[in-house]
Write a structure and sequence with these properties.
327 residues; mainly beta; Immunoglobulin-like; 2 domains; four-stranded antiparallel beta sheet; 23 strands
Amino acid sequence: MKVLSLICLAMISMPGFSQVPKRIVVEHFTNTRCSVCSQTNPGFYTNLKNHPDVIHLAIHPSAPYSTCQLHLMNPVENDARTNYYNAYGGTPRFFVQGKRDPNANTSNPSLFTPHAGQSSPAQLTIVQDKQPGNTIDVLVSVKKVATDSLGSLRLFVAIAQDSLLYAAPNGELLHQDVFIEALSNIEGDALNMPAGIGDSINFVYNTTVSGSWSFKRVFVVAILQEELSKDVVQANASLSDADSPLGIESHNTVKLSVYPNPTNGTLVINSEKDGIAELYNANGVKVDSYPIRRMMNNQVEIDQSPGIYFLNFVSGNLRSSVKIALY
C-alpha cells in the first residue's frame, strides 16, 4: 500500500540564493532476456562507475521479452514508465535528463558530458526512514533556490534495489539500481515551483516493500521534470543501508551525525560544515533552529511534544536531513 500526503512550507523568502548544480539521471530500459543488453550493459556500468554522481534507474519493460523475471516483479509500472517516454518496443534504451540518447557507445563518457556542469533553480532533499516490517517512510522536499520561468512540473519518486544477483537467461549476473515501484504517480505528481526563493514543497510517502526484495539495499530516486517536455529540472537519490553508515544521513549534501536517535530531547549534532539545523514537525512547520559549528559535538535541547520530527541541516546551498523520534 502507498500513502501520499503533501505539505506546503511557506518559509520566509531569502534574497541572494543562486542556482545549485543539477544532477544527471539516466533511466535505463533493459531486459534480462535481451542479448544486445548483455553486450551493451557491462560497458555502460563501467561508464557509470566512473561517474559516481550520476543517478541510475533500471526499468524492465515487457518488450522485447515479456518473460523477463525483473519485469514480472512489477509488470504494470515497468511498462507504464516505459510508455511515459514512448520507449516501448525494444531494449536497451537510455534516457539521459529525460531525453533518449542516440549515442550507440554508452560506454563512452560522452554519454554524460553534454549534461555536466549545468545548474538548476530547484533543490531536492530526500529523507528515508525504514521501519520494521519492510515499511519505508519517505520525505522529498522541493526547494526554490533561485528565480525561474518554469511552468507545470512533475515529481517522480520511486524505490529501487541498488544491486541484485540473478543469473539471467541473457548471461547477466549483476543487475544494478533495479526499479521496484513508484511512490508517486508513474508520470510524477503534479506541482508548480514554490512562489518565493527559499520556499519549499514537501511530498511524504509511505509503502511496504515486498519480501522478494532485499530491504537493506532499497533506496529512493526523485526526478523533477517539466510536464510537457519531460526535461529534468533536478534529481537526487538517497543511499541504501548497504552504503550509508548507521546514524548518518548523506544525500549528496553534507555528512551529518545525529545521536541519540530516538531521543528524550537531548541531541548531539556533528557536521563537517558550519550551518543551521532547522527542526520541523510532522506537519511541515518549523518549530526551532540551532546554530551548528563544524567538527564539534553540538548539544541541543528539543523542547517539543513527543513525536516524529525532521532535522534539516542547512549550510549555504548544501543540505542534509534526518528523521528524529522524540519520546
